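Whether sequence alone determines local backbone shape is best considered at the level of individual chains. The sequence in question and its structure tokens are set out directly beneath this paragraph.

===
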Amino acid sequence: MAKAYSYIRFSSPEQAKGDSLRRQVEAAEAYAGAHGLLLDDRLTDAGLSAWSGAHRTRGSLGRFMEAIGRGHVDPGSVLIVESLDRLSREPPLEALDQFRAILRAGVEIVTLSDGQRYEKGKLDHLDALLVALVRMSSAHNESQQKSERVREAWMEKKKRAAEHQEALTRGGVAWCRVKDKRYVLIPERSVIIRRIFEESADGIGHMTIAKRLNQEGIRSWGRSDGWHPSYIKKILTNRGVLGFFQPHRKVEGKRIAEGEEISGYYPTVVSADLFWSAQAASAGRQNGGGGRRGKKLSNIFSHVAKCECGRPMIHVDKGSYKGKEQRYLVCDGLRRGLGCTTPGSRWWPYSETEFAIMGCIVAEGITPLDSDSQDRIADMREQLARLRVQMEHSEARKNKLLDFDDLDDRAIRKRIREAAAEVKRLETECNNLESEIEKKSSLHSSRNSLGQVLKRLAESRKAARLGDEYKFRVKIAHEIKRAIAVLRFTSSSVTAITYDNSEVNLFYSIPRRQKNKNIT
């Protein structure tokens, strides 16, 4: 018995739930039974377009063509399809090349809709070739017209979205729903969105934010089993919280940005300052590296404490001994047996060291000469971090535009110029801000500003009856990183180095255990 292969294709996955799949399957089985063919395999491409050629590059038809090329399909076999437009809706000459490649391999093509049989020898007749070409051309033109109608309708919807903020679809961001053709906030979800951004800006990482939401029993959105760090990151980088929407189109299964962002499409959830503060804080954590934080943020000097030899001071927890904690800061080189060039490098007891450092920072007598200027320096540093992240995002958008195939398109060239101008503007702002920070930093010490900020944090925590200890310690760590570039540890001293390269000797000799409670 000759082998038969049935090829079934429909352009949208939804058609699998309807009659298209059943109709094509039953028709192929009936033909094979009536003609004594052994139906060897059923090839199915669900949701793959024959107009774009996705079924040929990524689908079952492409694998069947590869099998023909390798000689794995016997001559005399039969390929059963409902009609020629199932095989291809590409331009006629491209469709014809594929059609002839199948026939040249000795595989017969049967189209059930019109009862036609196409064989290698018979295609040499002009009338048979013309019939096949006409049907291929008709299939391509039909898809072309349909695509143009869909595109025109989509462009009209995008125009209404840009001009009147009408929802393109009922699906959108998870914190909004459609009401009267426009998106409105879901109140309980918008509260969670703001919380996520505030915690990120305070220095809390994606993993910890997700964990805290799960521990508090706050249900996640959709079918996910709880909150995931990847989804927290997705929310934090989604410009939809600022009201923006970027239309996309699919090209060979990939989502490609199309047209300009639509502003005001979604209601705003967070301020631009909070959005970019969260981005800057997240970028700072990534640059500084990760690591476990523990339930109470064990080490508030992470990524700041450095050994004199240049390696980081690592927090090591050895548990407890006779009721006393065994936590230390130690040079990473010494800990890993790589050696340390600092003479007499040793293990610093963590709690006592933290107490001593914080005590020196907030000690009486360390008050800013000009607290307004100090606060301004801290604000400018945060603003600079936000601008740098914005510049990176704008640069990335410009590079995506440069990847477009049709760079001669006037609209695309205009968007590239605008993106380049935005990058240049942000670069100028960053340079100006850096100069201003440098001028002010030459007159004022960052540690003064830090001391005052830490005092305010401690007072606000006390007024709130202590509150969330983890979040409080994260804020402390965040403020330390803003003001102190490096805490340099020698064998017996700790020196704070600020961003203007000022050095402040905090204390000498390893501190003894203190009975007083640390402010943190």
Observations:
- Residues 305-368+455-508 form one domain.
- The longest helix spans residues 126-164.
- The CA atoms of residues 375 and 449 lie 6 Å apart.
